[in-house]
Amino acid sequence: MTALTARWVVVDIEGTLTPTSQVHVVLYDYARPRLGPWIDSHPRDPIVVDAVSAIRSLSGLPDSANTEAIVEVLHGWMDADQKIAPLKTLQGLIWQRGYADGDLVTEFFPDVVPALRSWHDTGLDLAVFSSGSVAGQVASFSRTTDGDVTSLFSAHFDTVNAGPKRERPSYTAIAAALNAAGPQIVFFSDVPAELDAAAEDGWQTVGLARPGEPFGDADFGTHLAIKAFAEVSVDLP
Ligand SMILES: CSCCC(=O)C(=O)COP(=O)(O)O
Ligand SMILES: [Mg+2]
Q1: What's the CATH architecture for 2-18+106-235?
Q2: Residue ranges per domain, the chain?
Q3: Per residue in 98-131, pLDDT tens?
Q4: What is the pLDDT of residue 84?
Q5: Of 25, 92, 134, 205, which sits with the fewest C-beta atoms within 10 Å of its C-beta?
Q6: pLDDT confidence tier of residue 138, bands split at 50, 70 and 90
């Protein structure tokens, strides 16, 4: 067991809290057939209008491109697992509805909720930094096989309110928003490049090398690497 001290615990979602298949299979399969109908049924929702306009400009589609062409771009991005902000925004809205309707339930790795609860009970503050939109994050924590765990988290960050996950300025922005210095934050992620960016900003970093996951055999370099949260303790200084 490795003992860490921190004020904030910041966690990634996919590959860290949930199996990658929870996102790539369950959530992506849910979103795929609903993207077109969602765009067409929300023609005046400014969030949807802005997302569609960003998709057009990022993909080089003309203003006249119809929903079918936009959905084709979105499916291509999903197939390539490109976590592009307007796609994540639309997915988040669809998942929010799916969780509210009872169609979706999040399944965490078994070590996750006991660790989150124990850190929260110890007095640590918990936050999320994921490519999934804040709306999607909150919805996915509201209906899980361990119940509603939204109250464990005091802050949520995504690529819109913080920035890309593999770039240092995103971590600088999050630390500022949390009113914390980098060394007071410990970040858990399965992606070494994300840990590198956080470490550049002075954060403590822990890699999740979960067996069977895409980064289960990755080289975590100088980052502490664990297979499950039970291998570390985090306490207040
Ligand atoms: C309901 S949030 C789903 C998470 C998601 O969409 C995603 O892309 C996960 O990426 P992460 O940065 O958490 O690895
Ligand atoms: Mg991840």
Answers
A1: 3-Layer(aba) Sandwich (3.40)
A2: 2-18+106-235, 25-100
A3: 999 999 999 999 999 999 999 999 999 999 999 9
A4: 95
A5: 25
A6: very high
Alpha-carbon distance of 154 to 95, in angstroms, equals: 21
Among 83, 88, 103, 170, the mutation site with the greatest number of ligand 1 atoms within 8 A of its Cβ is 83
Average pLDDT over residues 194-200: 98
User: Residue 27 corresponds to which tokens in the numbers above?
Assistant: 């959530």
pTM of the model: 0.96
- Whose Cα sits closest to atom 14 in ligand 1? 14
Q: Which ligand is nearest to the CA of 189?
A: 2
- For the Cβ of 106 lying below 6 angstroms from any atom of ligand 1, the answer is no
Q: How far apart are CA 43 and CA 37, in angstroms?
A: 11
Average pLDDT score, the chain: 97
- ipTM > 0.95 for the complex: yes
- Separation of CA 156 and ligand 1 centre (Å): 12
- Identity of the amino acid at 76: G
pLDDT of residue 228: 98
Pocket lining: 85 vs ligand 1, CB cutoff 6 Å: no
